[in-house]
Amino acid sequence: MSLLHAADGLAALAAVVVYLYFASKSTAPQWAELQLALLIGVPLAVRRQWPLAVFVVVVLAQNVATVLQITLEMYLPSAYAAYALGLLVPRRRSLPVLVGALPVTAVALVVGQPWPDDVGLVGAVSVILVASWALGRANRVNRAHRARAERERAERTVEAERRRIARELHDVVAHSLSLIAVKTGTANHVCADLPEVARDALVVAERTSRDTLVEMRRLLGVLRDEDHAAERAPMPGLADLPALVGAARDAGVDVELAAGAPELPDAVGRTVYRLVQESITNVVKHAAPASCRVTIALVDGVAVVEVVDDGPGAPDPLPQGHGLVGMRERVAVYGGALETGNRPEGGFRVRAEVPLG
C-alpha cells in the first residue's frame, strides 16, 4: 500500500504544479490561484482514505477554476478522484454523487470556456469522468469476485480436511475398537478357566486403547491451536505396518505381510496404510479367527495393494458401509481402482491400485 500512497502523493504534487502554471498564464485573481491549485491537487494524496469527499472537493475546485478560465485540460484530477470513488465507495453512494457532479461541471464548462463547441467539450469531460468511475467500479466488482472465490476455495479446503479427518477417525476407531472388542470378549469367556489367557487379552486391549487415544489426539489436534507433542507426531505410514500386523495377530487373525513395503511417496504410503488397516479390521470383525495375506507391490508406477483372507466371505450383496466407501474415496483421489468381493476358493479379497502420479 505504501507504493500506492506514494503514487497518489506524486499525482497530487503534479496537479498542484500544473495548476500553478495554468494560473500564471490566466487573468484570474491572484488570491484564487494558489488556493485553487492546492484544492485541486492536495486532496488527491488522500483519495484512498476519503474518496467521496476528495471527489467533491476536486470537482468543485476544478469547476471554479474553469469559470475563472484557469483550467486548460480535460478534468484529469477529477477523473483521478472519480476512479477512487468507483473503487472504494459502494454504488448506492458513489453513483448519486457522480450524477450530481455532471450537470454542475457542464454549467461550469459552458460559462467558463470560450470555446465554440460547448456540447462537444461537455460530452468529452462527462465521458472521461463516467469512464473513470466505471473503471473503478469494475475493479471493485472484480476484487469482490476474487475475494469470494478465495473464501469459497478456503471453505472447500476446510471441508475436504474435515472429510479426511472423518475418514482417519473412522479407520482408527473401527480398527481399534474391533480389536478391543475381540480381546475383551475373549477375556470374558476364559477368565474363569484360563486366567493367564484372559490377562494377556486384557493387556492387548489396554495397549490398543492407549495407542488409539494418542492417534485420536493427534487427529483432533489439527482442529485446535494447542501445540502438543502428540499433535506434531507424524501420521502412520508403511513403516507402521508391522505394528498393525502384530495387533491383528493379537486379535486372533494370522496376518502375513507377503512383501516388503516399496518406496512410495508419503501421501500414497498413508493411503496404502489406511487401505490395509481397514481391510484387516474387516477381517477381525467378520472373519476371525482366520488367516490373512497382505501384498504390497509397485508395478509400472502403480502401488498395488491386495489383502485376502480364508474366512467365510461376505454376504451377497456386499453391504457398502463407511469402511468400503472410505477406501473407494481414498483410491479415487489418485484416480485408482478398488475391487472387493468373495473369492471362488473361499474368503474375501480386497485389491486396490493407487497410481503414484
From TrEMBL:
Keywords of the record: ATP-binding, Coiled coil, Kinase, Membrane, Nucleotide-binding, Phosphoprotein, Transferase, Transmembrane, Transmembrane helix, Two-component regulatory system
Cited PANTHER family: NITRATE/NITRITE SENSOR PROTEIN NARX-RELATED, NITRATE_NITRITE SENSOR PROTEIN NARQ
Catalytic activity: ATP + protein L-histidine = ADP + protein N-phospho-L-histidine
Domain named Histidine kinase/HSP90-like ATPase: residues: 270-356
Keyword Transmembrane: yes
Gene Ontology terms for molecular function: ATP binding; phosphorelay sensor kinase activity; protein dimerization activity
InterPro entries per UniProt: DUF7134, HATPase_C_sf, HATPase_dom, Sensor_HK_TwoCompSys, Sig_transdc_His_kin_sub3_dim/P
SUPFAM superfamilies: ATPase domain of HSP90 chaperone/DNA topoisomerase II/histidine kinase
Stretches assigned to the Signal transduction histidine kinase subgroup 3 dimerisation and phosphoacceptor domain: 161-227
Transmembrane segments: 6-24, 36-61, 95-113, 119-136
Protein name: histidine kinase
Keyword Nucleotidyltransferase: no
Entry GO CC: membrane
Domain named DUF7134: residues: 7-142
CDD domains given in the database record: HATPase_UhpB-NarQ-NarX-like
Gene3D superfamilies cross-referenced by the UniProt entry: 1.20.5.1930, Histidine kinase-like ATPase, C-terminal domain
Stretches of the chain forming a coiled coil according to its record: 144-171
